[in-house]
Description:
It is a single chain. Helices cover 77% and strands 0% of the residues. It is mainly α. The chain has one domain. The protein starts with a helix and ends with a helix. The relative contact order is 0.15.
Amino acid sequence: MTVGPLLAAAQLPGEFAMPTEQLRDAIMGLAGITGFLLFPMLGAWMRLLLQYLERGRPGITRARPVSGLGFVRAVATTGLLMFFAFTMLRASSDLREIHAEAPVFGSALQGVAVGVCLWAIYALGISALMRATKNRLRGERRMGSLR
Length: 147
C-alpha cells in the first residue's frame, strides 16, 4: 500500500527532507529577501539614532521625543531580517548535511546581491515618484489650482 507524500508527512513526527534543488533555490531566495531587508533595517536604526542625538541638542523649538513608530519599525525590520537570515542558515546547514561539499556561500551571496539591487531599484522609483509629486504640487501652488 502506497501512501501519498502529504499523508506520509502528516503521519510522521518531525521534519521531512526537501530535495537538494529546492534547498538551493530556498537558500538563494531567502538570501535575496535578507538583502532586500538589510538597508531598510539599517536606515530605520540610523533614523532612530539621529532622532535620539537631535533630541538633546539645544534649539529654538522644544525638543521632539524619539518616535515610537520609528522604534517599532526598526524592531520589526530587525525581527524580519533575523527570521529570514536564520531560516537561510538552517536551510544551508540542511543542504550541507545532504551534500558535504555543497557550495552555499556563492548562491547566498548572489541572492543578497540580487536583493540589494531590487531594493535600490525600488528606492530609486519611490524617490522619483516623490520628486515628481513635489514638483507638481509646487507648480500648482505657483499657478493656482484650476480645480
